[in-house]
Amino acid sequence: MTRADDDRPSWDLYRRMADSPLINPARREASLWALDQLEQCMGSDWLERYWDTAKHVPAEVNLGGAHAGALGSLLELALRFNLLAGTPGLGSVQKEMKNDLRDDRRRHAALQLEVAGLAMRAGFTVALEHRSSRQAPPSDVLMQRDQAALRVETFAIILDQHSQEGRAYWDRATDALRRINWEFDVGIAGDLGERLDDNAFAELLRLIEDAARKTVETGREHPVMFKGAQLQVLPPGSTDYELRGGIETSQGWSRIEARLMQKATQAARAGGGWLRADIMDGTWQFTPWARASLHAKVNQIGELLRSAMSQIDGVDGIVVSNGACVAQGQFHGLSTRTADHWYGFVRPLEGSRVRETVIIPVTPQGLGEADLWAELYNTEGSWLDWALCQTELPASQQIFG
Questions:
Q1: What is the pTM of this model?
Q2: What single string gives the DSSP state of each residue in 268-330?
Q3: CA pseudo-torsion sign 51, 53, 56, 62
């Protein structure tokens, strides 16, 4: 009989999943190493505690054994902990990630490690949670090289609670329709309409299943119209169709700007410097701005960022990105730079991921420092291979194929 404890997340559970003989040896070796490294850093009960608090396991662990993008993030996190060992302040970041079991705090700590890891490779001396004076609050990262010393405040802007609930609903709806698609070998096309409550959603699925049975029996498509959903269930073999669902994003620029101003004020109290933010609330995926060219994106968001940041004395600039996202389609490296030293990069990353990064200086000092940030993120695509080599693990080509 299987004990109830066997169903709870644990490092051993994910090690068993990663140790499958179906996984290539290099990927298995790297995955097992990363899981061992994170268990040492976070503790044996971290996954269970995270599950109990957040109702899910961090995606880089939960999907790392089967999903290339998640594995890339898993390896990067473990490698950064390993390579930054002995760095002043690392223990504080580790303690925060271990004890504060919220997604935004985990991403905040991971972003500190990202900046520190990129800076280390570029020859900077780094410190985490560094105070400019005994009275000042700490800066998340201090990186120093030659005469340059940059203080950095890192943070992530994730979906607000309403949008998180919406995203979970559409994920659940997609999974349910995929199950019907596989079970009946039919296509499902059209518009799902707006988000439904549990009872209405269950009724919609019942109607779709009934239509799927009729489609299989007759070989003809059948419509499903219910509470705004307008769908067609298509016969087996159909390939040219599209399923649309609701797109729910955050509260827009006003929410982002408020968060930026809060963190800019915090950075100024800590001694000033730069902000480094991952904007992961849908802005980079589901807005007209997201569909613009890289140069146009840099110009448009640059004006907004400079206007907001110039209101706070002591902030020299800001670096924003969409995080290391799963690449939907094929991406190639792109770069742009304006006369004001505003930078934009698109960089494919190992594990079928891609990141867009925008660098906006605000002060005359920030103008020169923007070039240092460009050095870090221009070469980001090769960081993982460099780190794997430092740790004597297989190269990314062996791991990801």
A1: 0.78
A2: HHTT-EEEEEEEESSTTTSSGGGGS-HHHHHHHHHHHHHHHHTTSTTEEEEEEE--SEEPSS-
A3: negative
The residues near 254 (Cβ < 8 Å, ≥ 6 apart) are: none
Beta-carbon count within 10 A of 3 CB: 7
Distance (Å, rounded) from C-alpha 364 to C-alpha 64? 43
Average pLDDT value for the chain: 88
Residue 140 corresponds to which amino acid? D
DSSP per residue, 314-364: TEEEEEEE--SEEPSS----EEEE-TT--EEEEEEETTTEEEEEEEEE-SH
Task: Please name the helix (run of DSSP H) or strand (run of DSSP E) that holds residue 151, with its range, or none.
Answer: strand 148-158
Confidence of residue 37 (pLDDT cuts 50, 70, 90): very high
The number of CA neighbours under 13 Å toward the Cβ of 61 is 24
- H/E stretch holding 377: helix 364-378
Tell me which DSSP letter residue 289 carries.
G
Q: First and final CA of the chain: distance in angstroms?
A: 39
Residue 305 and residue 311 in contact, taking contact as beta carbons nearer than 8 Å? no
The single residue listed with the structure tokens 């991403």 is 107
Distance CA 393, CA 385 (A): 9
| Residues 55, 8, 64, 244, CA torsion sign | negative
Quick check: 340 and 364 in contact, CB under 8 A? no
Q: Residue 100 is encoded by which pair of tokens?
A: 């504060």
- CA pair distance 320, 152, nearest whole angstrom: 12
Both tokens of 8, joined, read 């709870």
Whether 162 has a pLDDT exceeding 60, the answer reads: no
Give the integer Cα–Cα distance in Å for 27 and 205.
38
Phi, psi of 229 (to 5 degrees): -75, 130
Instruction: Say if residues 82 and 137 touch (Cβ distance below 8 Å).
Output: no
Distance separating alpha carbons of residues 180 and 141, to the nearest angstrom: 49
Strands 343-349 and 353-361: antiparallel
CB 171 within 8 A of CB 247: no
Predicted confidence at residue 104, as pLDDT, reads 86
DSSP 196: -
- What are the sequence ranges of the domains in the chain? 9-87+394-400, 104-159+249-390, 162-244
∠ at Cα 241 (230, 163), nearest 5°? 60
